[in-house]
Amino acid sequence: MENETQKFKWIGKRPIRPDGVDKVTGRAKFGADMHLPGMLIGRVLRSPHAHARIRSINTEKAAALPGVKAVVTGNDFPPPPPPVWEAAGEQPVNFRDLARNVMARDKALYDGHAVAAVAATSAVIAEEAIDLIEVDYEVLPHVIDVKEAMEPDAPLLHDDLFTDGVSPKPDKPSNIAKRMEFVLGDIEVGFAKADIVIEREFTTKPVHQGYIEPHACVADSSEDGKLFIHCSSQGQFMVRLFCARVLDIEISQITVAPAEIGGGFGGKTTVYLEPTAGLLSRKTGRPVKMVMSRTEVFRASGPTSGGASKIKIGANKDGTITAAQATLAYQAGAFPGSPIGPGCMCAFAPYNIENVNVVGHDVVVNRPKVAAYRAPGAPISEFGVECVIDEIANRLSIDPIAFREKNAAHQGTKAAYGPTFGPIGFAETLKAAKQHPHYSAPLGENQGRGVASGFWFNIGGDSSASVHINEDGTASVIEGNPDIGGSRASLALMAAEVLGIDYDKIRITVADTSSVGYNFLTGGSRVTFASGKAVVEAAKGAVSELCARAAKLWEIDADAVEWVDGEARPAGDNAGDFEPMPLSTIASAAGKTGGPIGGHASLNVKGAGPGFGTHICDVEVDQETGRVSVVRYTAVQDVGRAVHPSYVEGQLQGGVAQGVGWALNEEYIYDKDGRLDNPGFLDYRIPVASDLPMIDTVLVEVPNPNHPYGVRGVGEVPIIPPMAAVANAISDALGVRLKDLPMSPPKVLASLNNGDDRTAS
User: Fold this and answer.
1) 250 catalytic, yes or no?
2) What is the count of structural domains for the chain?
3) Residue 361 in contact with residue 328, Cβ under 8 Å?
4) Do 565 and 652 belong together in one domain?
5) What confidence category does residue 62 fall into, taking pLDDT thresholds of 50, 70 and 90?
C-alpha cells in the first residue's frame, strides 16, 4: 500500500482524528446533550399488542395532571401524505407509512408502536401521565414469521395492500407488498448443462444494529412557526425532509443541527421521535427533549430484516458455475419497504455467471418497520449463496478460494441486476486471501476453516462542501454529513492534499441544514467517495482563486500561475522570475486583492465503484455444549484507495464483529402474543471483546477511476461474508451444514445429535 500512496503527501497517512480530543474528554455533544431554557420532557405511550385496532384513546386524565403541557395522538398530526414511494432516504420512502409509523392512527401494528405522547416539566411527571392515558384496544390476530405471513390465510396487516410487481394486479389484499425479479440468460438451459446441482434453504433472523446511543432529539418551535431540531441521526437533511412531510411544514421552516452520533450503522436513517417532539413543541411553545430508553429502541425502532431464502446453483465438474437461482423473502416489519432490492442485486454479483434468476418478496409482519443495517439486504442473500458455493467446491474437491477464482466477476462482467463492471478488485482479494499465512496455518482438534466473499455496489449522490481560506493560511472545510466512520479525517486529508498544506491546518465542520448546501444522508458507504469529491472540487476552486490572487500581486495573467505543494509558482520561464508564494502569504493579502478566498461545490456524484471482500474464519466447536468460538479471522477487501488506513481497518474489523454476532448469537425473540422477549443488551447478546480474536485486515487497493483519489466505499462489504464464513468453518469442523441463523449452541447440538445435513452426503 505504501507504494500506491507514496506519490501523495497526505492520502494514505494516519493522523489523529479531528474529533478525537472532544470525544475522549467528554466535550462532544450527542443527541441527548442539549439543554435549553424552559425545556420540557417528552414520553411516548406504546402499544402492548402486536396487532390491535384502536377503538378510542382517552387523554383527559393525563392532560389534567399538573406539569403536563401537551398530549398528542395520531389525530393531532396532519393527515398522512399520499401513499407514493419517493427517493428520499437510503431506500425509497412512502411518507404515508412513515407518518403512520411515527404515530399509530387506526391500528397498532407491532409491540411498541407509538399511540400517544406527552410533554411535561419533568420525566417523572411525563411517565406518570403516560400511565394515565386510557386506550381501548381490539386485539387482532398477528403474524411474526415471514413464511407464515405469505400464506393465503395469514392475518392481514393492511386491507389496502396489493402485491406490486405482479401482473395482472391481484384482486385480494396480501401481506406480500412487492415481488421483483432479475434475469440473466436462460436459467433452465444453465441447469441442464450442470454436472452437479445443489439446492438449499436458509433462514436469518432480524438483528439490531447495536448502536450505543439511543435515538434522541430536542425540538424547539418559535413563535413564527420555525422549527429547530437537534438530533442523533445519519443525515440532518433527511430529518428535515421527513419532518416537513409528516408535519406538513415547508422545508425552509425547519433547521436541523447534527449532533455527534453514538453509532448508527443504518439504524438512524429514518425518524421516530423528531416529528412528535416537533409537534409537542409547536403545541406548547417550548423546547421538548425526547430520548428513547434501550427497551424502546428494541421495541420501536427498526432492526434489519429477517429472511428466508432458497438458493440453487449448478456447476460443471471443472468448477464452472452454469446457473444460479435464488428465491428470497424479507420481513419488512409493519409497513412495506424491506431491503429486498439490494438483496436481490447483490446475491450473485461477485460471480461471472451466464444464467441467473433472482426473485424477491417484500413481506409485512407484525414487527417494527425495518431500518437499514450495513449493506442492507446483502448479508441475508449472500449468506445462503456463499454456503452453497462452499458446498459445491467441497463436492467437486476444489479448493474453495480456487473455485471462487474460477468464477470471479472481473472488469467486463455483466451483473444480473444490470451494470457491466468496470475496474474491480474481487480477484485480487481472492489472491491475497489464498496467499495469506492464515489460509495455510494448521488447525487444531474440533477446529475448522471457512471462507466467504461479499459484494456491495456502493452509492454516490448529492453532496455539497465549501472550503474557506483563513487570513493566517489555515483552511476551514464545511460539509453536511454526520461523521459515523471517520469522514472528517478523510475529507480533511483530501483538502490538505489539494491545497498542499499540512493536515493540522485544516478545520472541518459538519454544518446544520441552513449553513451548507444539500447533502444526501450518511449511508451506503457514500461520504468519503461523494462528499470527498465535493471537498476536492471546492478545494480546487479555492486553489484557482489563490492562483488568481498571486497573479494580481505579480501583475501577470492568472493562467501563467500554477499551484505546487501549497505555493503559487510561475507556470513557466516566460511567466516571469518570481519566488514561490505560499498560501499563507496570499491569504494575508486577500483584503488587497479582492476579499475572501474560497471555493464551493454542489455535485450529484456518480461512479461509485463496487466493493468486494473475501474473509477467512477459523472456529473451534465444543461438541459437548455446542458453543462455537471464533479463534482466528482475516478480512481482505478491495478498498479502492485507503485515504486514512486506520479508519479503513476499523471499518473492516467492526463489520466482522457485527457479522459474527449475526452468525452466532443475535436475534429478536417474540413470545406467543407477539411481544419482544429480549429488549435489551442483557438478553440480546452482541459480541464482546472476549468473544473475538484480533481481527486481521488486508487492504487491497484497486483505485476507482471515477474518483480523483481512487476512493471506494468500504463500510458495507465487511458485514457480508462473516455469516457464511462462520457457517462454512463449522461445516469444515463438524461435517454438518447449519442453515438457520443464529448458529447458537442448541442448534449446533441438535444438528450434531440428529446427524442431519452432513456435507459429505
Assistant:
1) no
2) 3
3) yes
4) no
5) very high
